[in-house]
Design a protein that fits this description.
Helices cover 33% and strands 21% of the residues. With 453 residues, it is of the alpha+beta class. The chain has four domains: 8-62, Luciferase, Domain 3 (Luciferase, domain 3); 67-145, ANL, C-terminal domain (GMP Synthetase, Chain A, domain 3), CATH 3.30.300.30; 172-245, ACP-like (Non-ribosomal Peptide Synthetase Peptidyl Carrier Protein, Chain A, Orthogonal Bundle), CATH 1.10.1200; 261-427, Chloramphenicol acetyltransferase-like domain (Chloramphenicol Acetyltransferase, 2-Layer Sandwich). Strands 1, 2, 3 and 4 form a four-stranded antiparallel sheet that branches. A four-stranded mixed sheet has the order 7-8-9-10, covered by helices on one side. Strands 12-17-16-15 form a four-stranded mixed sheet, sandwiched between helices. Helix 4 packs across helix 5 (203-217) and helix 4 (172-185) crosses helix 7. The longest helix has 20 residues, at 390-409. The chain is globular. The protein starts with 7 loop residues before the first strand and ends in a 5-residue tail after the last helix. The model has no long low-confidence stretch (mean pLDDT 86).
């Protein structure tokens, strides 16, 4: 074993360890090996990791260069080999661009002759699964190299999402769907026959697309429609075919001033898990930002106050009423916590701050800390998953930045008023999933799970 802080290969052992790969004795012999230190078989995961000083395990990527994207394991060398087999490509590098839900498979290519990127995409699509076809591309004159001749991945420029040429919208409805596609995908425009998933879309973005279609057209569109008809023209045809048969979307209306509400269904699930394992930090969402310059503490506190006033759910608590979870205002402000740390102790301090559990019944479910003494100050934001998710965390940080800038200038932030609150949404969801809808869902899942242990 390696001492804390030293990177190495992550190995797994224990009674639940598999016997090996079915029908592949060579891979089994390579990955399932005997550990003299443990005195038992271990599985070599191929993941690079290290044990931190606080006892937490930190994953650092793959030892073999393998990529992981939305549940798929991708060998970049396999994609690169197919790319350089194209007559026009002399060199290629494949990797990931972006982070989190916005991550995409990207390709950097050096061409020996002119060729359209869409032609390269089609070349790959005919030879590889769809998830191995890059959604972002960059043409280079040459690949960047280090002084000793190795590929310098850090010098690769940010690639651009490729929008294939295609026809324009033929109807106003197609035009609207094209605009919604472009907004969700972060593109300037999308052709009417552009494939949502080929342009970088995935299941999480598909949910956003359905939500925006609901808001724009006030109709319910099932998520599967995006997968079955993944182009603006195809979805527009589905919407047009529904016509009068379309199910109107029940409007989500604000109830101003009433912030006591039953928990949403997602909140109820997380509250139930917290009851099973109180004091767990497994659902904490955390981000740390290295700041340039010394922040104005008063303006930063004003920004935090403004954020909680705007997104009231961040200042809520989750309590039980007659055995059911409700979200109520916490009644206590979110105070900016200032901490002095050393350079050697910064990582452990941030880790401890991020992993400290929340008391759902006490609240608030957001904390913000300012860590000084280790070079540039670090701002840490931690929130419980019961009031935020990975996507909304980006919104939270953007609004906090806007509010901080406005506080520095002594003027109101230029943020559009929110038409509804999360409490409004929770009440709407509970009202919507009731009666016949709820009974149909329960009947379906009872039949699906019949006979399960």
């Amino acid at each position: 074993p390696l001492p804390p802080g030293v990177p190495g290969e992550l190995c797994i052992a224990g009674p639940a360890l598999a016997c090996g790969y079915v029908g592949d004795p060579q891979a089994t012999a390579e990955r399932f090996v005997f550990s003299e230190w443990l005195g038992e078989r271990v599985y070599r995961t191929g993941d690079r990791a290290r044990l931190r000083g606080d006892g937490e395990l930190e994953l650092l990527g793959r030892l073999d260069g393998q990529l992981k994207l939305r549940g798929y394991r991708i060998e970049p060398g396999e994609v690169e080999a197919v790319l350089v087999s194209h007559p026009a490509v002399s060199a290629a590098v494949v990797g990931l661009s972006g982070e989190g839900a916005g991550a995409r498979l990207a390709a950097w290519v050096v061409l020996r002759e002119a060729v359209a990127i869409e032609a390269l995409r089609e070349w790959l699509a005919a030879r590889l699964p769809g998830y191995m076809v890059p959604g972002a591309w960059q043409v280079l004159e040459r690949l960047p190299r280090t002084p000793n001749g190795k590929l310098d991945r850090g010098a690769l420029p940010a690639p651009a999402a490729v929008v294939p040429a295609g026809r324009g919208p033929a109807t106003a409805l197609e035009g609207l769907v094209c605009e919604l596609f472009a907004g969700v995908l972060g593109l300037a425009s999308v052709p009417a026959d552009g494939d949502f998933f080929a342009l970088g879309g995935h299941s999480l973005l598909a949910v956003q697309l359905v939500s925006r279609l609901r808001d724009a057209l006030e109709v319910e569109l099932p998520l599967r429609a995006v997968f079955e008809s993944p182009t603006p023209a195809g979805l527009a045809a589905v919407l047009a075919a529904q016509g009068q048969a379309a199910v109107p979307a029940e409007r989500l209306l604000p109830r101003h001033g009433d912030q006591e509400a039953p928990a949403s269904l997602m909140q109820q699930r997380l509250w139930f898990l917290d009851q099973l394992e109180p004091g767990s930090a497994v659902y904490n969402l955390a981000v740390a930002l290295r700041l340039s310059g010394e922040p104005d503490v008063a303006a930063l506190q004003a920004a935090v106050d403004g954020l909680v006033a705007r997104q009231a759910v961040l200042g809520s608590r989750i309590v039980a009423r007659d055995g059911e979870p409700w979200q109520l205002p916490c009644g206590r402000p979110v105070r900016l916590e200032e901490r002095l740390v050393t350079a050697d102790g910064l990582e452990a301090a941030l880790s401890g701050y991020a992993s400290a559990p929340f008391d759902l019944a006490a609240g608030p479910l957001l904390r913000v800390g300012l860590f000084r003494g280790a070079g540039s100050p670090v701002l840490a934001v931690v929130v419980h998953h019961i009031v935020a998710d990975g996507w909304s965390l980006g919104i939270l940080l953007a609004e906090l930045g806007a509010l901080y800038g406005a506080a520095l200038r002594g003027e109101p932030a230029e943020l559009a008023p929110l038409p509804v609150s999360y409490a409004d949404y929770a009440r709407w969801q509970r009202d919507w999933l009731a009666g016949e809808r709820l009974a149909a869902q329960l009947d379906y899942w009872r039949s699906q799970l019949a006979g399960a242990p």
